[in-house]
Write a structure and sequence with these properties.
The protein is an alpha/beta fold. It has 10 helices and 8 strands. The protein has helices spanning 10-23, 37-50, 71-85, 112-124, 138-147, 166-174, 205-214, 218-228, 240-247, 256-263, and strands spanning 2-3, 27-29, 59-64, 90-95, 128-134, 154-158, 178-182, 232-233. The protein has an 8-stranded parallel β-sheet with strand order 1-2-3-4-5-6-7-8. The longest helix has 15 residues, at 71-85.
Amino acid sequence: MKKTSGDVKMDKAESAVKWAIDAGYRHIDTASIYDTEDEVGKAINKKVAEGAVKREHLFVTTKLWNDAHAREAVVPALRKSLETLNLDYVDLYLIHWPIAQYKNGTYYDVDYLETWEGMIEAKKLGHAKSIGVSNFNQQMLERLISKSSIKPAVLQVEINLNLQQPALREYCRQQNIVVTAYTPFGSVFPNRARSDAPPPRVDDPTLVQIANKYNKTVPQIVLRYLVELNVIPIPKTVTKSRVEQNIDIFDFELTQAERDLLKGYDKNYRTIAAKAWIDSPYYPFEKN
């Protein structure tokens, strides 16, 4: 449940992962495009060397970027990530986006079904214990499952109070696909919210009241709600106190009335719309 992302400075990523492991996190999420794999790997290997954790008790995720979607490019891309991480394998390898794109920004014609065949090869070689996808919609998942002998183990998508994706979550439940939620706080923090973002914010009186009831913070209430939706949230922070707070959500449960209230904030509002790729034939989101 610890995410290291692209706007995290590399030295901070190493510290954050060390703090996360010490706090009890065992799921570490990175990606080649984040440019944090080196620091993430350093932190993991240092903690393993210290005896703080065993490698087999960690669940490390990284992702294939858009410029390596050709079937024959997948395994070399993962091997490069493994070299950067200084790990023998990752526990989960994801197709980051269903869009094939050169480094110069132009698209190239590779179907994600072809990319998936490369992912299957990576799994068979033992480079990844499991494989999955990120930012795929339900139609893409249906097509992938119908055309392949191996189903994605995980779907990683944006899920937060403003974008709860109930239909997609239900489909994944039926298919036994685990759902991981990036950007779990959405627009809760005012400094991260766009001007058109719907409520709530972190100072919302109703959410503050719920948080006070459990002696928690509003972000902890949000994470707890996602966990109760059977979603794995992966919050991103490089602040030690928040790293520790974000995992301290397993000693209480929300009431049905509280869950119903939080459900009401779902407005199908995306924080990460990736509109720069809207003209791609594999753009996965609504185009309105």
